[in-house]
Amino acid sequence: MSYGLKISKAGYDVKTADNENLILTSDYPFLKAYLQGSFSLSITADGTYTNGVTHGLGYHPAYLHLGVYFATLGDTDKRILGCWSAEGPGGEIAVDSYITDNILTIGWKDTTGGSFESYPYTVYFYYYLFYDKLNA
């Protein structure tokens, strides 16, 4: 006899539903949450700004991060996932991250001279770390 966990979408019988009609199934691995949190960076001039989150797991865990970057422009509903870069005639804005055995570092780079947003402005980050290792 095999045991597991299944949760079906509304209107589907969990005993007979195909996998695409399940919300969750233990037939497939899924990320196990370890730590989540948020922080903000105050951007006061051209440069790179970073924040480190200590996790202390002793290995490179899987992680996600997203941010709200346009709050001072009135756009607080848009959440942008992951690393990205945008270049224009005024310079570059970018989000980057990396993880070590003990620290997740997330950074913001602005070389636009204030043409992206007038200095100072604030960017907000949300992060999720998982027990699952990046390097199997």
Topology, pairings included?
Layout: E1 6-8, E2 22-25, E3 33-43, E4 47-54, E5 61-68, E6 80-81, E7 84-88, E8 91-99, E9 103-110, E10 121-133
Antiparallel strand pairs: 1-2, 3-10, 4-9, 5-6, 5-10, 7-8, 8-9
Task: Give descriptors for this structure.
2 domains, 4-stranded antiparallel β-sheet, mainly beta
What does this structure look like?
The chain is mainly β and 136 residues long. It has 2 domains: 1-29, no CATH class; 31-133, Sandwich (Immunoglobulin-like), CATH 2.60.40. The protein contains no helices and 10 strands. A 4-stranded antiparallel sheet has the order 3-10-5-6, with no helix packed on it. A 4-stranded antiparallel sheet has the order 4-9-8-7, with no helix packed on it. The protein has a two-stranded antiparallel ribbon with strand order 1-2. The chain is elongated, with a radius of gyration of 20 Å. The two termini are 29 Å apart.
What's this entry about, in short?
It is built from no helices and 10 strands. It has 136 residues and is mainly β.
Could you name the CATH class of the largest domain? Mainly Beta
Give the CATH topology of the largest domain: Immunoglobulin-like
Mean pLDDT: 89
Q: Got a strand count?
A: 10
Q: Proportion of β residues?
A: over 45%
- The outline comes out as elongated
Q: List the domain count as a whole number.
A: 2
Total DSSP helices: 0
- Reported CATH architecture of the largest domain: Sandwich
The largest pleated sheet is described as: 4 strands, antiparallel
Low-confidence stretches: none
Structural class: mainly beta
What percent of the residues sit in helical stretches (DSSP H or I)? under 10%
- Measured distance between first and last alpha carbons: 29 Å
